[in-house]
Amino acid sequence: MNTALAPYVLFGATKPWLPPPWTTTDDRVRGGASHSYLSALPNNRVRFHGHLDTSTLGGAGFASQFSPPEAAGTEAEEAGERRWDLSAYDGIEVEVGEGDGKIYTLVMKDEGAAGKREDGREQAGVSWEVDFKVGGEAGETERGGEVTTVWVPWGEFTATYRGREKGDAGELKKEQVGRIGLMMRSYFGKQEGDFSVVLRSIVARKTTGGEGESTATNAVSRLQGSMPKNTDTANQRSGKGNWTGWFDWFSGPFRTVS
Questions:
Q1: Are 78 and 147 in contact (CB under 8 A)?
Q2: pTM
Q3: Other Cβ atoms closer than 10 A to 38
Q4: Helix-strand-coil percent breakdown of the chain, rounded to 5?
Q5: How many helical (H) and strand (E) elements, i.e. helices and strands, does the chain have?
Q6: What is the pLDDT of residues 115-140, one digit of tens each?
């Protein structure tokens, strides 16, 4: 009898990415001009793409897409809340197609909706993030149907609140993951312009004794030495007076996965 734990498909493969549509959260909510989209492709793939503008906000910029709450796996105790219970798995595997060499961020949220502000925007909550990069140098597109598989153990996700690392967040609550996001950031002028990456699937896997055990490259080794570090202090950042206190929600100091 085979009791191996099968991979848990969150998006792609056997589960459609769309519909329902993902939620757009771009810097336009703060007066910026960046924009992002998640567009369906054949064979149950999607393209996360758009334009990252850094001129409007003095070097700052972000663009992101978040899965809708109703896309999560099972009904939770709270009315209207759905969750993925990933506690039996060891991490997340992302299959990526064409990439442009830019740095993307995979985001997971393990808290319920924080509610709405008076202006209608969602209140900030804790996010768990890790960066990944597919393709050659920034602006260079990886083509030819190649697939890059990125493996992220739970311990590589970093807790952030309003873009800054939150050291007292404890551990990712793997039994109640509610939303998954994809983000493109400027890292204070280090990235800008058009961006595009094709995603095939996001899957939770057991790395030992599981069915279809992952052979993916660890995100740590993929990113080590490939991303620029942000060594600027807060006071050295261009345009700080115009956007500090709101852009820090989403960016904060550049973090190299290590």
A1: no
A2: 0.76
A3: 21
A4: 10, 40, 50
A5: 2, 16
A6: 444 544 556 688 999 999 987 654 44
